[in-house]
Specification:
The chain is α+β, with helices and mostly antiparallel strands and 1478 residues long. It has 41 helices and 64 strands. The chain starts with 9 loop residues before the first strand and ends with a strand.
């Protein structure tokens, strides 16, 4: 029972129904804070209980779902990060670490070892715990509880055997930790773990001594906390006290007949509690011989204790703990003794008991003094006093106390008949429920949810359809069309406990066919793979409980194959369609290979061979398309050849090779698929869950917020024409084509080609949104998706034309909008803002929930936390929506806030999307036709409503993004909420991981929430965040080059960039990151890393294991989080130095980011960000990942902070390179639909380049000019160096460079005017000179001609630029040469060529001087070098003060205008004109 593993932002909620889920308790544990109980069940679920510290009453809070087998061990773990965690282990080797405060699964793993007992212990008195595990294996494994990695192995030198019991302690006055182990055969072993063993974690530790004792199959061993020389060992027949010094037996007690001892613990030096398999606890006083005149302080220190004991020296039973209404259960209860610290400092001992009926009992163990014991001992009684539990709680009792009862998914239909199978058909919005009486009910899924969850919703039972055909309960349902479109969309298949399979037509509700081919209830329905034979493609696969498998043809309406010779239950079915094989694996490990077409049993395989064949079958399916390429090197080919020739050894070798390849492929490709292989997702899914097969189903509803946003925007954009898209700023196609055309050749042939390209662009413009949207499978590029869009372009165009502006929306539109309405209604914080509530109900059309909603949380690997309706019981709706909702979990708060803000912003960007009177109302832009005055009035009123709607969505986003914490805290103070409920604010690290989420709306929501939270926590909060996360920041050495294999990385480079660094988007997206270059093995990095850690004195080496996935995730998060803090809050120091020390903004800056002497944080963060940008693409750090995008974005945002530590040239060239990689149709930053990874990287790089250029225009221009000069030098020697210049970044990124230059000229003219020569160098590099043959510069690149210092002569093909230092730059476009003349001693204000191009006038207003220049060729017949000389100079009148620099129009202060070939006029901005003659 696990949730979907979609990487999207999924929000689950539960319908539990009127009866509680079963919970047969198999393990019980109390948390370190003693306020939380955790119970594990035989069905694999964990239940978290909140325990009242005074009454010990336990209230069930939530279920933790993810294990697939019975829970065996539960152990509490805590580390220095103050996380309350529990580690669970199941009987099939699964281990999970759960965060009890947050409810999410931190880590999960499946080990080959199956543990029977786990003890948590902290080495050397440190706070970080380790888990000592024993089980059906001969070692003691030491596991890190937070990474679940094996960090130490305690092995046996003598008599290795399975360990039955274990205890770890640190003896007094010793520096080593001692591990006591007891094998199943009764050998005690002692391991001493010292500092040397902790440093050599890879080496196995051997035992130091061992001794055989008479104790077989022990269940527990515990040392006395108060006196370490006493040990109690419990075995089924006896419990025994031993002396820890020499393990001599001191005393023992046999179990009663028919009962067996299970466990025991010390209560004091001479008191023990022991419990049996019936769940009864017995408290004993250990026998002590009284010495006259001496009170013994310790039992074992008594010399008489070891003497032969008398008959009176047996342990004395003085109390029994048992239930008043003891019942017999099939499973023994689970019991644990725990020491609890009360609020007043008292130590209280509790006995916790969990029963098979889900009941938790808490016994408070009485403290009896020696005097009271003597009095009890003098009393002569046969039965000792019995104590009943202080509190008893169960899921069923908690359920009964709820009013009104929790609703089920069919509560509005008929609540008496339980649902046993369910299926949600997403394409038709129909919920199919099979029930216990054999009937199948089909209802409208969304209408059902709204009627059950929201106020003012009507029950819609008109469209309900009931199918009657089964005579017993329905066990499984299948809608084949949902899995593959080859099936008929009206067919539904159901299986029942009456052994029948029914085929239904759901459009008419008729029974098409009933199959009865198996003699057991149908357990599962499957669909064969898509590459099967044509006959099998029309079949479905049915698995029954009589251990048979059948293939039923829906087309032929008959059974094609009945595989019924299996002796044990079927556990797995695999396919090999190309060889016509169906593999059926059974629970005894046997594999049956069936031929599908003939129905014959091909062979039966046992043992390891069966596993190898199954694994190879998996691998061969994954590489079916590459058969021809792989040839005989493909292990799947060898495998199937071996299979056909019945050569098991060949199969084994091929399978092993295939597994190795599979591991390498998964290790290298796992992270690469983070952005590519995202399934499209559906906005709403309803899934049936059950705790075991005999129970009725509960229902989980999954809202996919990302899919919902994408669907809304997709449908919004599909109604827009290309012109509308461009008007709204969503695409900038025409601008890009205009700039790109300048970079290509302008010959007549090329002009025809460009005209043809532009014509094609105009023809396909209506499908542009389909082209730039990439929702394809893994590895599909933007271009391949474009081809697909062009194929169906005609039909899409017709749809857009035919779909005129409608008054009511199509059905699919209203469905998507209704899902958004339902989700926002459930997530909105009602009663926090009364005015907003009124607007939400009346203008936006939202509705309040009827009752508190049981939300859930999905963590990695599909593990789920599901809230129960019992906590907090009886909570009013208003209190839940305003406070209780936000007190569940910080991860849940983060996900819900992301969904609300993203959806609100999406609906705000749409055209008046609102829900009014239960109907979706949406105003569309007015059509361009003649309208009457009444129409205009209606349009004006609709525009007012439009503004009000957008304002409502804006207020909703603001409330949850900025105001929520303060509003909730105000409400908490007002109502004095209970201590158990604390506002769980959004997790900053989660928001940082979504900084560059795939979905733009969620990305922007995460950025807004993170910045608002960082602003809210203030200076101290940001400083503590930096202190916390700076320890995880990787450090780097000197910058490295991209080209070549010499990567110089520093101490912790491999930590961030080593194998497996996780992606920012949780749960299943991963940061791919790898710092190891191809020419250098990773081992060298690891060796360097360990060495440098010691040198730097950093604390990284203490966080074991330091190469763990969790540490790499933290490092990646650290880079982004510190990058955000540095970029947004780190640049105020420089401003404060200019504005004075008293500026209050100075306090906002975090120390370490700024221009002061302490720039260490800025340096380290900038190195890490630069590394992520410049690191070459590897399988573990692909070129396009969200981590690399985040680094690009943060470099752009905080460029002023990082600039002193960056190689600006490499950064700009890398970003330009990414812009070259993207397609030419990259939309703007406001285009909401997900793009392909390459397009997204391109868009982010463009945005970052824009930010860098506008923040530091001088740095951008001088750097690019320097690179252009280097390129020109390379161009002159290209032939000699054999370099292909067309592939260089500067050659391919010309359109992008021109775009940025044009933007800078538009926005920052004053900065550009100081660097006009460099700007002209860059522009002339990017613009093809052929465009300037017949056209002037003002036509080709008009932005540049805004400056009067630049002039162009088309006839002579020369450009002159006046610089700030008084020199003239003369560009010869024919020869691509440039000549510099020192024309003036001050800044040149204007210059202009004469119409014939023979003369040039230059003017400097600072120098008050006008000069005329003439070009002439030297030598005979003018064949020598061209010289430019000054032919005349005038001293001009000073410029009036009103038009000097500093006025409103500094760039237009003066310009030169030729009136004839010999006369030029100086025209000032005030309109005055002065003429001068040559």
């Amino acid at each position: 029972m696990a949730g979907p593993t979609s990487p999207h932002l999924v929000i689950p909620l539960m319908f539990w129904g009127e009866s509680s889920p079963s919970h047969c308790i198999s393990a019980i544990q109390i948390s370190h804070d003693h306020c939380t109980l955790v119970t594990g069940s035989h069905d694999g679920q964990l239940c978290v209980w909140v325990m009242d510290p005074n009454t010990y009453k336990a209230t069930p809070k939530c279920l933790l779902v993810g294990h697939t087998a019975s829970i065996v061990c539960l152990v509490a773990a805590k580390n220095t990060l103050e996380m309350e965690c529990i580690v669970s282990s199941s009987e099939n080797g699964e281990m999970c670490t759960w965060d009890l405060i947050d409810g999410q699964c931190i880590e999960s793993v499946k080990l080959p070892q199956i543990h029977s007992h786990i003890q948590s212990y902290s080495f050397g008195g440190t706070e970080d715990a380790s888990l000592f595990c024993i089980g059906n294996y001969p070692e003691i494994l030491v596991i890190d509880p937070f990474t679940l990695e094996i960090i130490m192995n305690l092995t046996s030198r003598v008599h290795p055997d399975w360990m039955a019991a274990i205890h770890v302690l640190r003896p007094t006055r010793r520096q080593d930790d001692v591990v006591l182990g007891l094998t199943t055969s009764g050998v005690v072993k002692v391991w001493t773990v010292g500092a040397q063993d902790l440093n050599n974690l890879g080496e196995p530790v051997l035992e130091h001594e061992s001794k055989q004792i008479r104790c077989l199959s022990a269940t527990s061993m515990t040392c006395c906390l108060y006196n370490q020389r006493t040990v109690i060992i419990v075995s089924p027949k006896y419990w025994q006290i031993y002396d820890a010094g020499d393990f001599s037996l001191l005393c023992s007690m046999a179990s009663r007949q028919g009962e067996s001892w299970v466990g025991g613990d010390f209560l004091a030096t001479d008191r023990v509690i022991v419990w049996n398999n019936a769940g009864t606890g017995f408290i004993y006083r250990l026998p002590t011989n009284k010495l006259k005149g001496h009170v013994m302080r310790c039992v074992v220190e008594s010399k008489d204790f070891h003497n032969k004991s008398s008959e009176e020296d047996f342990p004395f039973l003085y109390c029994v703990l048992k239930l008043a209404d003891e019942q017999k259960f099939p499973c023994p209860p689970s019991i644990r003794c725990s020491l609890v610290v009360k609020g007043d400092g008292r130590l209280v001992k509790l006995l916790l008991r969990g029963d098979a009926n889900g009941r938790v009992s808490v016994f408070s163990i009485p403290e009896v003094t020696d005097n009271q014991l003597e009095q009890i001992q003098q009393l002569d009684f046969d039965n000792p006093p019995i104590m009943n539990p202080q509190s008893c709680s169960s899921l069923a009792d908690a359920w009964d106390a709820i009013y009104p009862k929790p609703v089920g998914v069919l509560s509005h239909v008929d609540n008496n008949i339980s649902v046993t199978a369910s299926l949600y058909i997403t394409t038709q919005n129909r919920l199919v429920c099979g029930r216990a009486d054999g009937s199948i009910v089909l209802v409208n899924g969304l209408a059902t949810l709204k009627s059950l969850l929201l106020q003012q919703s009507q029950n819609d039972l008109q469209n309900m359809l009931t199918l009657e055909g089964h005579t017993s309960r329905v066990t499984c349902l299948l809608y084949p069309y949902q899995l593959h479109t080859r099936y008929d969309p009206v067919q539904l298949v159901s299986g029942g406990a009456d052994f029948t399979l029914c085929l239904w037509d759901i459009s008419s509700g008729t029974l098409l066919q009933k199959f009865c081919v198996q003699v057991g209830e149908i357990a599962q329905l499957l669909v064969p793979p898509a590459n099967s034979s044509p006959r099998i493609l029309q079949c479905i696969c049915s698995v029954a409980k009589d251990h048979s498998v059948s293939l039923i043809s829906l087309k032929e309406r008959k059974c094609v194959l009945l595989a019924s010779r299996h002796l044990f239950p079927v556990t797995c079915i695999k396919w090999r369609p190309l060889d016509d094989f169906m593999m059926v694996a059974c629970s005894d490990g046997t594999l049956y290979v069936w031929q599908m077409e003939t129905g014959q049993l091909d062979r039966v395989v046992h043992g390891m061979s069966a596993e190898e064949i199954l694994n190879a079958c998996d691998e061969s399916v994954s590489i079916v398309p590459s058969f021809q390429e792989g040839g005989l090197a493909n292990p799947a080919v060898h495998f199937f050849r071996g299979l056909k020739h019945r050569n098991i050894s060949a199969i084994r070798h091929a399978a092993l090779r295939g597994l190795n390849q599979l591991q390498h492929a998964s290790a290298s490709g796992h992270h690469d698929s983070g952005d590519h292989a995202k399934d499209r997702g559906v906005p709403l899914t309803i899934q049936g869950l059950r705790s075991n097969a005999s129970e009725k189903e509960f229902h989980a509803v999954f809202f996919d917020a990302e899919a919902l946003v994408v669907q809304l925007l997709h449908e919004e954009y599909s109604l827009m024409s290309p012109n509308t898209l461009e008007t709204h700023g969503l695409i900038n196609q025409s601008e890009y084509q205009k700039v790109a055309a300048l970079t290509h050749s302008a010959s007549p042939d090329a002009q025809k080609k460009i005209a043809g390209i532009l014509a094609k662009v105009r023809e396909s413009a209506e499908n542009m949104q389909h082209k730039i949207q990439s929702r394809s499978d893994a590895g599909a590029s933007v271009r391949s998706s474009e081809r697909g869009a062009e194929d169906d372009g005609l039909s899409n165009n017709e749809n857009v034309r035919q779909r005129q502006i409608p008054h009511t929306l199509p059905n699919d539109w209203s469905l998507t909008m209704e899902i958004a309405q339902l989700l926002l209604s459930l997530l909105h914080g009602w009663t926090l803002d009364k005015d907003l509530d009124h607007a939400c109900q009346n203008r936006l059309g939202l509705a309040k929930p009827k009752s508190p909603v049981c939300f859930g949380l999905i963590s990695r690997s599909g593990h789920m936390m599901l809230m129960l309706p019992t906590w907090p019981a009886g909570e009013p709706v208003d209190h839940f929506t305003s406070f209780g909702h936000w007190a569940i979990s910080s991860t849940l708060t983060t996900n819900h806030l992301l969904a609300i803000v993203a959806l609100s912003n999406t609906l705000m960007s749409m055209n008046s999307a609102a829900f009014t009177d239960g109907k979706i109302i949406r105003q569309f832009p007015p059509r361009e036709i003649a309208r009457s005055s009444e129409d205009r009035k209606g349009e004006e009123s609709s525009m007012v409503l439009d503004v009000q709607t957008k304002q409502g969505w804006s207020l909703m986003a603001t409330l949850h993004c900025v105001l929520l914490p303060d509003k909730v805290q105000e409400l908490q103070l007002l109502h004095n909420s209970s201590v158990l409920e604390v506002f769980r604010k959004a997790q900053i690290e989660m928001l940082a991981r979504r900084w560059q989420d795939r979905c733009l709306e969620i990305r922007e929501a995460a950025q807004a929430l993170l910045l608002a939270e960082l602003e809210r926590v203030g200076v101290d909060g940001r400083k503590s965040l930096v202190d916390k996360w700076a320890t995880f920041l990787p450090t780097y050495a000197d910058p490295f080059t991209i080209i070549g294999s010499s990567l110089s990385v520093g101490s912790n480079a491999a930590n961030l960039t080593g194998s497996g660094t996780q992606n920012l988007s949780i749960p299943s997206q991963q940061w791919g990151s790898d710092g190891s270059s191809p020419a250098r093995p990773t081992g060298e990095y690891e060796a360097e890393e360990d060495h440098d850690d010691e040198d730097d004195g950093e604390d990284v080496a203490l966080r074991r294991p330091n190469r763990s996935m969790e540490l790499k995730r933290r490092q990646a998060t650290s880079v982004v989080l510190l990058g955000v803090i540095g970029a947004e809050f780190g640049q105020d120091v420089g401003e404060n130095k200019r504005t004075g020390e008293a500026d209050p903004r100075k306090k906002k800056t975090v120390e370490g980011f700024g221009l002061g002497p302490n720039q260490n944080l800025a340096r380290l963060t900038s190195k890490a960000l630069t590394y992520l940008l410049l690191a070459p693409a590897t399988p573990k750090l692909p070129l396009h990942t969200s981590l690399r995008r985040a680094a690009i974005d943060l470099i752009g945002r905080g460029f002023t902070v990082w600039e002193p530590h960056l190689d600006v040239s490499k950064v700009l060239l890398s970003m330009l390179e990414l812009c070259c990689e993207g397609d030419k149709l990259i939309p703007s930053m406001s285009y909401g639909l997900p793009l392909s990874p390459a397009a997204d990287s391109c868009r982010t790089s463009r945005h970052a380049l824009t930010l860098i250029a506008t923040a530091r225009p001088a740095a951008f221009i001088t750097t690019m000019a320097r690179e252009v000069a280097r390129y020109i030098t390379l161009q002159q020697n290209a032939q000699a160096l054999n370099v292909n210049l067309a592939n260089t970044t500067l050659a391919r990124a010309k359109p992008e460079i021109l775009r940025v230059i044009e933007l800078l000229i538009d926005k920052m003219q004053a900065d550009i005017s100081d660097l006009l020569v460099e700007v002209t160098d860059i522009v002339l590099h990017c613009v093809d000179h052929g465009h300037l043959k017949g056209r002037s510069l003002s036509e080709v690149f008009p932005s540049l001609c805004r400056f009067s210092q630049i002039t162009h002569c088309s006839s002579s093909r020369r450009i002159a630029v006046g610089s700030r230092n008084g020199s003239l730059a003369l560009y010869e476009l024919r020869g691509q040469k440039c000549q510099y003349i020192q024309a003036h001693n001050a800044e040149i204000t204007a210059c202009a060529f004469s119409p014939d191009g023979k003369n040039l006038a230059s003017y400097s207003s600072t120098e008050n001087r006008l000069s005329f220049w003439q070009q002439s060729a030297t030598g005979v017949f003018g064949l020598g070098a061209v010289q430019t000389r000054c032919v005349k100079t005038y001293t001009t009148d000073p410029v009036p003060q009103c038009v000097r620099p500093g006025s409103t129009i500094p760039l237009r202060m003066a310009r030169l205008q030729w009136h004839s070939g010999k006369t030029v006029a100086i025209m000032l901005s005030d309109g005055s004109e002065t003429r001068y003659h040559l």
